[in-house]
Amino acid sequence: MYQLIAKDGAAKRGRLHTVHGVIETPVFMNVGTAAAIKGAVSTEDLQQIKTQVELSNTYHLHVRPGDKVIKKLGGLHKFMVWDKPILTDSGGFQVFSLAELRRIKEEGVYFHSHIDGRKIFMGPEESMQIQSNLASTIAMAFDECPSSVADETYMRNSVARTTRWLERCKKEMARLNDQEDTINRQQMLFGINQGGVYADIRVEHAKQIRELDLDGYAVGGLAVGETHAEMYRILDAVVPYLPVEKPTYLMGVGTPANILEGVERGVDFFDCVYPSRNGRHGHVYTNHGKMNLFNAKFELDDNPIEEGCQCPACQKYSRAYIRHLLKAKEMLGMRLCVLHNLYFYNNMMEEIRAAIETGTFQKYKANKLEGMEQGE
């Protein structure tokens, strides 16, 4: 159940009650593709850095170690030792990202595994079955994520198929949640709005899928090559047509600035690999812009990454030491940067929630953006 606690313009402050605990929104989900955050980050670390939701990848876990293996071991929560909510994506994005390895048909998608080349078929029912085996808190509907530059005819046909697939997902999810051997019989289902940069197709699709009364609604197929301005234009067009009394999820987004713009337009959920990926390359986020710790100017800098930051890295270690670790290719350097970046994102979401509750989101957003634009 989703509670709308406060609004500040279109910005929403909500609370989603799940079988694995309450999610305070807006929320940034920390991406652990193969049931782990890249950079040697443990689930104990996630607890320490204010993580609310972990996100894992259906396709990758199906390929390795196998969703049936994870089910035999008690589900994803037990497998990765995480007691808070987990969202699993549907495998639909891999339809986009593994374009060279797949064929799309009405029944579903035929893949070749990117690991060993073996044939894989995934349709709406298979995606739901895999996610049910994983026993995640929130399952995403199986969709096609078309290229943002696909022509209008292709986009209309693709979106119509995604709608048919969504109806099949809902039916299969209901069946699975009724099975005695299902680990999480209260698994939630989020549908996905598609339509590329065609606002009229997006709005039409939103109107169709909101009738299905799902647990939440995502806006997919953005941050895949279009400009930020185009992304914001689509959000302005489509979010008002998604139910305000349900959580809205902007998939695969993004930078701190993207998140602030998304929140302003009524988005509740975000996820992105940026904080962990950038951290592994020595790029760290601060309230005064992004820093590259490989830069020589940090060689003798005994300050923390950011003064006043409560993350595990800033509590103990200097920029100089972390730079040394990165230059020496020591895993600890990457780990500390990833921990800092995820804490920065999670803490920013906490600040956003407080700002919406006090009606000061616009002021908060302006100050945050002004500070972060300084950079090095």
From TrEMBL:
Record-annotated tRNA-guanine(15) transglycosylase-like domain positions: 10-372
Cofactors that this protein relies on: Zn(2+)
Pfam families: TGT
Class of enzymatic activity (EC top level): transferase
Keyword terms, alphabetized: Glycosyltransferase, Metal-binding, Queuosine biosynthesis, Transferase, tRNA processing, Zinc
Chain sites annotated for binding Zn(2+): 309, 311, 314, 340
CC cofactor note: Binds 1 zinc ion per subunit.
Signal peptide: none
BP GO terms, sorted: tRNA queuosine(34) biosynthetic process
GO CC terms: cytosol
Residues covered by region (RNA binding): 252-258
Pathway this chain belongs to: tRNA modification; tRNA-queuosine biosynthesis
GO MF, one example: metal ion binding
EC code: 2.4.2.29
Residue sites binding substrate per the record: 89-93, 143, 194, 221
UniProt-annotated catalytic positions: 89 (proton acceptor), 271 (nucleophile)
SUPFAM superfamilies: tRNA-guanine transglycosylase
Catalytic activity from the UniProt record: 7-aminomethyl-7-carbaguanine + guanosine(34) in tRNA = 7-aminomethyl-7-carbaguanosine(34) in tRNA + guanine
Subunit structure: Homodimer. Within each dimer, one monomer is responsible for RNA recognition and catalysis, while the other monomer binds to the replacement base PreQ1.
UniProt function note: Catalyzes the base-exchange of a guanine (G) residue with the queuine precursor 7-aminomethyl-7-deazaguanine (PreQ1) at position 34 (anticodon wobble position) in tRNAs with GU(N) anticodons (tRNA-Asp, -Asn, -His and -Tyr). Catalysis occurs through a double-displacement mechanism. The nucleophile active site attacks the C1' of nucleotide 34 to detach the guanine base from the RNA, forming a covalent enzyme-RNA intermediate. The proton acceptor active site deprotonates the incoming PreQ1, allowing a nucleophilic attack on the C1' of the ribose to form the product.
Family: Belongs to the queuine tRNA-ribosyltransferase family.
Name recorded for this polypeptide: Queuine tRNA-ribosyltransferase
Lineage: Bacteria, Bacillati, Bacillota, Clostridia, Lachnospirales
Gene coding for it: tgt
